[in-house]
Amino acid sequence: MRRRVPLILAACVLAVLGLSAGSASAVTVTVLGHDGRTHVINNPYLTGPAANPAVPAGPVTGPILALPWSPLVPATASPLVPATASPLAIVPSARAPLARIARVGRAALKSKTKKPKPKPVTFPQALLNLRDKGTLDAADYQSDVQAWNQAISEQKHVTKWRATQLEGVTATLDELAADKQVTVPRLPVLMLTLRNNTSYWKAGPALGDGASVQFQGSELVWEYYAGSGIQLQVLHTFGEGDGYYEAGRAHYGKLATLMNEMVPLAVRRGGGLAWEYYFNWEGGKPPWVSAMAQATGLEALTNAYLATGNSQYLTDAHEALPLLETAPPTGVAVKTALGTRYLQYSFTPNTDIINAFLQTLLGLYDYALVSHDPVANALYAAGTHQAQAELRSFIVGGWSLYQAGDADSLSYHTLVTGFLKLLCQKTRISVYCTTYQRFEADLLTRPQLTLETTSAIAGKKFGLNFKLSKYAGVGVTLNQGATNYIYEKKTFYAGTRSLLAPKLKIGTYSLTMSVTDPVGHYAKLTTGLQVCKRKCPVQPYAIQPTTGTPPTVTVPIPTPTRTGTTTTPTTTTPTSTSTTPTGTSTTGGGGISP
């Protein structure tokens, strides 16, 4: 999978998670007004939400509600928008942005046999079919077709670049229709996306990939994906709701408004409620779902209950659990010998992204803590058993992995460190606490590089060997006069590493090496490399490490905060630890010390 994950609040990652929303830097959001004009704001409620899920705690009047859980209510009693409801009623005046989407899978739609196949169903035809079946109200059908025609017409009247963005969205709708995925419950999101994109690209400013967008009169958060248009960002929206809760009572009204917009946009999937994504992403075709987004929805619903005392939010959260019990591609649960792994993407059952897995556990834990829902407790228990077992495989020595073989960027390392901190605070489970301590120390520890190769034999290729204390980028320049024999920069994991050097003639060469870790810690050494006819005489290494004592990193374990009781697993409380980075070594060569 690509590193930029649409479900991660990458712009919202904090250096230290667990702060209130108002105490962190805000996210820049483009807002489209009713008059068609846009302005940019800093939204402080997008800083903490999904990146900083807090232990639910709020001013609910009276005791925490323990509901007598029963089987899911039938579809007819679902809080979803009824089939006859007009999609226009969701956000009356919302307008949103969009961009170009790749026309994925068009070749697959062509006939592969001699007998010609029918042309794929288009979005307007799908709407007509729904009307003819009696599931789509005639008035809603007319409104939706009108919105489609307006989008197609707008493509002809705007600049080429803007038309390309709008074409991406209409192409996606056609693809959904061809795949028979256009249903009445999905129409509120699909039509809102179409209308918002049509409105935005009339005059809205250009957007950078990943830009957040909101619209006057709506709390929904949208995001621009180059190649996929501007789409409803489920995770960001629920995260904003959590931010409103953390900000205090004065913002509870906005939280309620947001949830009243989001709950009707859910569909029934896997036997319960689910919030889907409707664009192509990294090989996954819409509609797809994410455990991380679903679990952040559990948190937002729990917080909405704590803020308002309305038990319907807990009922909705309970109905959102089946997706976390269902196997992909419908759901996001992969059963293992130890429990369950929860997926970031329903379309990639073999992709294990640890930060998404941990955030899913946080959402389940917080909801179970308040609701005492046995289903949520069981889902949390199954997930935490699996997460504890596999967490060690995401440690590479001095840094974290995003997924197998793929090191975290600084922002994702910070994100996963914060999730581990919260799990440690809430559960006191040893592996969460010790891994949190380790990753937190990685942010402070400076890289150590020790050169092991200081000479070579003429006329033979050789390995330029060095030891690296943590994941970092290493730059190497080996030259003699104006001729470079090595001029390279690569990223290495911790351990003994090597770069292949070419055959060299007898002489002295200038060698410069630098090391930079993801945090930005930097060090450099310059020395000479001797090349001899045979083995070079042993000489004291001339470059001495920088003097000074490596810092001692102390990472305390905070006292956990709890609300109510839960049956989730507990372990003994670990004590705080101190990590002293390895000192600079001069064995066999010279060491770089920051």
Summarize the helices and strands and which ones pair or pack.
Layout: E1 27-32, E2 38-43, H1 106-109, H2 123-132, H3 138-155, H4 160-178, H5 187-203, E3 212-215, E4 222-225, E5 229-232, H6 234-247, H7 252-262, E6 267-269, E7 272-274, H8 291-308, H9 312-319, E8 333-335, E9 340-342, H10 354-371, H11 374-390, E10 401-403, E11 406-407, H12 410-427, H13 430-444, E12 449-451, E13 455-457, E14 462-468, E15 472-480, E16 483-492, E17 495-501, E18 507-516, E19 522-532, E20 553-555, E21 577-579, E22 591-592
Parallel strand pairs: 1-3, 13-19
Antiparallel strand pairs: 1-2, 3-4, 4-5, 6-7, 8-9, 10-11, 12-14, 12-22, 14-17, 15-16, 15-18, 18-19, 20-21
Helix pairs in contact: 2-3, 2-4, 3-4, 3-5, 4-5, 6-7, 6-8, 7-8, 8-9, 8-10, 10-11, 10-12, 12-13
